[in-house]
Request: fold
Amino acid sequence: MSLFIDPKDRKYMLLGTRIAGDFGATLFVPVILFAWLGKTLDNKYDLWPILTIMGFVLAAVLSAIMIYKKAYKYNAEYLAIEGKETKEISKE
Reply:
């Protein structure tokens, strides 16, 4: 067993760690922000569940869109490590 990590494997590990952190933050920040904002507005206008639920739904939609876009970027980075070319997919 070697104590040294292959440089290519290290690139995969760093990419995976970066993806996990980035996706985690992409999911965490909008949910916390919109849930807090929804709850604050619900308390202010006495509309308890409505704005909080709308905040969660909005956070889910925004997170899904951001994750989708970031997945293309990380796919290109992964393929660059593999030494393969990326096919440009139109994101209309």
Observations:
- The CA atoms of residues 54 and 62 lie 12 Å apart.
- DSSP finds two helices and no strands in the chain.
- Residues 25-82 form one domain.
- The chain has a mean pLDDT of 90.
